[in-house]
Structures are given as C-alpha cells and as structure tokens.
# Entry
Amino acid sequence: MNKGSDSFAYPPRGLSREEAARYIGVGTTLFDELVAEGSMPRPKRLHGRVIWDRVELDMAFSSAPQNGGSDIQRALERARSQRR
# Structure
C-alpha cells in the first residue's frame, strides 16, 4: 500500500459555502439567509478559509421545524422543553 494514500472513504468534516448549501439541499442564496437568521450555523475560519462544520449543519438541520412533525422531531422537542 502506498504510504501517501488514504484507504478510508469518508465525507469531509469541513464544507465550503456551496458544499454546505448543497449538503442541506438548498441554493447558496437561501443558505446565506438561513445563516444570517441563525437557522444554520456560522462558519469557522481556518487560515483564511471559510468552512462550515458538517456536524453542526446536521444538528441545525435536525432542529429545523418539520411539516406535520415526526416521532424524532417530537422527541427532540420534548427533550428541549425538559432542559428548560
């Protein structure tokens, strides 16, 4: 095996703005609006690069309201209200 190769296949943890928007299923304009209103996380800055954390995007997406609700969404809402 080549020492320089990576034998693991995994998604990147850090995403560009375009990748982050595509990851949650929206265009960049709507993504920018969601970040500005606080529905999506703000990016991190690493050596001048602007990068969104995929895990933070997952958490924000899971917290987004859902039409009709699901068992998972209701469980998350119950857990949030119990912490208050």
Observations:
- The chain has a mean pLDDT of 87.
- The first strand starts at residue 14 and ends at 15.
- Helices lie at 17-24, 28-37, 54-63, 71-83.
- The radius of gyration is 16 Å.
